[in-house]
Design goal:
Structural class: alpha/beta
Distance between the termini: 58 Å
Number of strands: 7
Helix content: 25-40%
CATH architecture of one domain: 3-Layer(aba) Sandwich
CATH class of one domain: Alpha Beta
CATH topology of one domain: Rossmann fold
Shape: globular
Largest sheet: 7 strands, mixed
Order of helices and strands: HHHEHEHEEHEHEE
Strand content: 15-25%
Length: about 210
C-alpha cells in the first residue's frame, strides 16, 4: 500500500474525509519534511511511512475535538500539529510559534510552497509573544508540562479560549500541579491508526468566575 492509500485509509479511520487537494498537500508537506530533515534535523523519524503515522495522522487525530477559528500552535517544531490541521481546515487560521530559527525557516518554506494562506509563523518564545487578538485555542504536542503550558500561554487566549494538550501516557502527576483557575474541561483517549502507543488529548480552560 502506497502512502496516499495509507493516508486516505487512516484518515477515514479517524472519521475524516480528505479531498484530493488535501491529500496532495499533506503528502507534499511530508516530502518537504523528508527533504529538509537531512540538513535541519527536524525529526528523529526518518522513514516516510513512520512519519505519516507518527506525524500526519497523529496530528489529525485531534481534529474532531477542536472548537473555534483561530489557533496558536506553540513549540510547533516542524509544524506539528499545526500544518496538517491547517490543510484539513482551510477556513481556520493557525499561528505557528517556535523559538528555533531553522524550524521557522522550514515553516516559511512550507507555507510558501503549499500556498497555505491560513498559516503564519513566528520565531519567538511563547512567553514573549503578543497577539493583536486572542486565539480560541492553544495547541501543544509534547511541548511542556500542563502547568507550564497554561502559565506560558494563558495570555494568548481569548475569553473562553482553551488549551489543547497532546500527550502520550496519561499525565497524572501533571494534573495535580495544574494551577488555578485552570481545570480539565474534557479528556479524550485517542486511537491513532499505525501508532502502537498511548495518546491522550486534554482540553484545559479557566473556571468561570463567580458573579
Amino acid at each position: 500500500m502506497d502512502l496516499r492509500e495509507r493516508l486516505g485509509r487512516d484518515a477515514a479511520a479517524l472519521g475524516l474525509t480528505l479531498s484530493d487537494r488535501q491529500q496532495d498537500r499533506l503528502l507534499a508537506y511530508l516530502a518537504l519534511l523528508q527533504k529538509w530533515n537531512r540538513a535541519y534535523n527536524l525529526s528523529a523519524i526518518r522513514d516516510p511511512r513512520d512519519m505519516l503515522s507518527l506525524h500526519l495522522i497523529d496530528s489529525l487525530a485531534v481534529a474532531p475535538h477542536l472548537e473555534g477559528e483561530y489557533f496558536a500552535d506553540v513549540g510547533t517544531g516542524a509544524g506539528l500539529p499545526g500544518i496538517p490541521l491547517a490543510i484539513l481546515f482551510p477556513e481556520r487560521h493557525f499561528h505557528l510559534i517556535d523559538s528555533n530559527g531553522k524550524k521557522v525557516r522550514f515553516l516559511f518554506q512550507v507555507r510558501t510552497e503549499l500556498g497555505l494562506d491560513n498559516v503564519s509563523e513566528q520565531q519567538v518564545r511563547v512567553e514573549s509573544l503578543r497577539l493583536d487578538t486572542g486565539v480560541d485555542g492553544v495547541l501543544s504536542r509534547a511541548f511542556a508540562s500542563l502547568a507550564d503550558m497554561v502559565s506560558g500561554c494563558a495570555h494568548l487566549l481569548a475569553p473562553g479560549g482553551r488549551c489543547y494538550a497532546m500527550k502520550g501516557q496519561w499525565p497524572e502527576n501533571e494534573l495535580s500541579a495544574l494551577p488555578k483557575p485552570f481545570k480539565v474541561l474534557a479528556a479524550h483517549t485517542l486511537s491513532v491508526p499505525g501508532v502502537d502507543a498511548e495518546r491522550h488529548l486534554l482540553v484545559l480552560g479557566r473556571e468561570p468566575t463567580s458573579p
